[in-house]
User: Fold this.
Amino acid sequence: MHNMEKEKKQCKDLSLRETARFLKRHDNFIILTHASPDGDTLGAGYALFYGLKEIGKIAAVICADVIPGKFKFFVHETDVVPLEGSTVIAVDVAAKGLLGSLEETFGDIVNLCIDHHISNSRFSDYLCLDANASATCEIIYELLEEMGVNINTDAANAMYTGIATDTGCFKYSNVTAKTHLIAAKLFEFEIEPAKINKIMFDTKSRNLLELERMVLDTAEYHFDNRCIILSVTAEMQEKTGCSGSELDSIAVISRCVEGVICGVSIKQTGAEKFKISLRTYPPLNASEIGKELGGGGHAAAAGASMNGSLNEIKEKILAVLKPKMEAIDAGISSC
Assistant:
């Protein structure tokens, strides 16, 4: 279905019902996850794959990066699908730049994006967006129900993982009553939440512990100790052997410090290339900060990719944060 022409259609919003009809009208799918994959993008991609297989469709799940072994309990081999004549879907991808090395091939030919990021850049032909969903996996669950698809245990495990990881095991502010209801319904499909949560939240390698020790030594506090900046250099990653989604725990550390309302983690991804993760508490808005840095996300969690030296990146971040912190001091309620 993809259109190789340079002229791009204007992105059209689809409801859940319209998205279900769209999927039923087509047969061959390529499902894209974002680079540095997390539980939600993988959970959404594989749950959609299993759902489509249940109704006789052919689908492949593709990620630019190696999928971490901790997801092996629901990540299995998918179909081989030729690009020509296929429908390309991106899940949990707010902007085509997040596709990593897949952007060159797929960035301009994504037919449908299913996402929960309010900052979605509308790079696809069609968009199924629910910014109130705690995770894209919430949307996928409702979509599979709308399609009348049988949900198998692998799909249920995938969706539970996505919801649990994007909500910090159900403790972040993005959790709603619907989040708990969907999680409860997933219990009906023989999932093992305790095992999943142990793998996702309570298991760390010795190498990761060593990396976290190094990162804590880089801690910088700003704005009367209300902002913390943690840095992960290429040297640290090389020394410990930790990289990719293993580094997600660094962002969690940044939001745990007493008195901090803005946690910033800076992870080096290449020569003068860095991935920024932002975690905030009200009245700060991580999404707005992320946009000013060239990225985006949610009110409490956002990110961006930036180029420059580590010191230059820090200076740019602090320059964006300074007026917002001053506004808070002046009594302005939301920043």
